[in-house]
Write a structure and sequence with these properties.
This protein is an all-alpha fold.
């Protein structure tokens, strides 16, 4: 899988983020080996999906029987402005709202692994 921006950032900073997030959120001091294991699981459980969606990779080679419109990508996409939105929509505010969604998803995923 080609890395998207999420994958590239996670590749370079993921272990540091895992270490800091587990420390700040649950006061856990993970060993280097534990951080590496959590990092690998986080990529498989969350970041791989984001990379695939960002790169336009289909979930299946066959016809889909339904669409998932409530996943992380869809929830974040809802904060993008539409062509008919009022001109006074603050894009930075929308981005900050999307960041909260992404952070929450990351922490829930991390919680399920640690």
């Amino acid at each position: 899988m080609k890395l998207s921006s999420a994958g590239l950032i996670f590749k370079h900073f993921g272990k540091e983020v895992v270490r800091n997030a587990t420390k700040e959120t649950w006061d856990l001091d993970l060993s280097d080996e534990q951080v590496d294991k959590v990092y690998q699981k986080m990529y498989k459980k969350l970041i791989f999906e984001v990379d695939a969606i960002d790169n336009g990779v289909s979930q299946t080679k066959e016809q889909l029987t339904y669409m998932i419109a409530s996943g992380l990508a869809s929830r974040v996409d809802r904060y993008n402005t539409a062509w008919n939105d009022p001109a006074d929509v603050n894009i930075q505010d929308q981005f900050k709202k999307a960041m909260v969604i992404a952070e929450e998803e990351f922490i829930w995923c991390l919680r399920s692994i640690t």
